[in-house]
Amino acid sequence: MTGAVVIEAPGEHRLASHEPRQPEAGEALVRVHTVGICGSDREVYQGNRPEGYVRYPITPGHEWSGTVEAVGAGVPAALVGRKVVGEGFRNCQVCDRCHVGETTLCTSGYEETGFTQPGAMATTLTLPARLLHVLADDADLTAAALLEPAACIAAAAIKANALPGERVAVVGTGTLGMFAVQFLKAGSPAELLVVGTRPDRAELSRTFGATDFRTKDQELPDDFDVVIETAGSRSAARTATSLLRRGGRLVLTGIPAPGAEGLDPTDLVVRQLEVHTVFGAAPDAWAHAVRVFGAGLLDPLPLVTHELALDEFPQAIELVGSGDPKVGKVLLRP
């Protein structure tokens, strides 16, 4: 069946029939292979996504992979038949932020696939072709569906600029944390520490390249060069900062709930810490993620624990919010 998930309003969804929208000039029509579900999709369903960052009714789905079926005028015909992933931010391409490549900071306002524009929880997705990133012909499209969160971590890795031989750490052991381990491992660190709340993630962390694993209530070092924080918990940013040497570099990617512990500005200044943040992924980060994936340095499949059909969307959303440590990445197959 050709269908699409439509969230009419918070807590209300239906499986609707789906008619592919033929691509207009500059667009491409993609047949969706796999779509991932993340916490922000659950926010859309529950109705607690921040105001201005969702528009109902909406077909969700911003983490996806697929194959180009058709292109509009002005798009290279050679794209047809290629495996692709795609950026979510629908940037304007003409403001000053877009011109310097900071497309997630587009001054024309927020528009994103799966939140304000139709997403990939459907048989097909039509979007601007300039947002596509082409994969190798033998790429695993199931694994590639996780390249959106990987691209966000690629952005963090670019900002962290970890050099070979540096001592690096990751705070958080979810999907983003495990991607951060893989990106940092690819840079040949001297040490790679993972800090989390789940001891059951120790083995997977080491599989991806960690040299040490500790829970945050254990004794932690304070002399690392680089820390990437991915947890988004109340105390994660402060824990990440405590791991750094003077002059160390911190990249925050987690988005905590209101009331999170703040960073001490005196500590930041006296220790001369560099603090960077990431929200979404610009084109250079996407290109980096696709390149690292294509080189075999990124293995998303061990993070996938569930694959369901599109009409099992309610079960998938429940799994994502269950808090069950046995639930990793949940994928849907349109």
TrEMBL record:
Protein name (record): 2-deoxy-scyllo-inosamine dehydrogenase
Aminoacyl-tRNA synthetase in keyword set: no
PROSITE patterns, sorted: ADH_ZINC (PS00059)
Pathway(s) it belongs to: Metabolic intermediate biosynthesis; 2-deoxystreptamine biosynthesis; 2-deoxystreptamine from D-glucose 6-phosphate: step 3/4
Enzyme Commission numbers on file: 1.1.1.329
Pfam families linked: ADH_N, ADH_zinc_N
Lineage, broadest ranks: Bacteria, Bacillati, Actinomycetota, Actinomycetes, Kitasatosporales
Source species: Streptomyces guryensis
Cofactor (UniProt): Zn(2+)
Functional summary from the UniProt entry: Catalyzes the oxidation of 2-deoxy-scyllo-inosamine (DOIA) with NAD(+) or NADP(+), forming 3-amino-2,3-dideoxy-scyllo-inosose (amino-DOI).
Domain Enoyl reductase (ER): 11-332
UniProt-listed SUPFAM superfamilies: GroES-like, NAD(P)-binding Rossmann-fold domains
Family the UniProt entry places it in: Belongs to the zinc-containing alcohol dehydrogenase family. DOIA dehydrogenase subfamily.
Positions of transmembrane segments: none
GO molecular function, one term: oxidoreductase activity
Keywords linked to the UniProt accession: Metal-binding, Oxidoreductase, Zinc
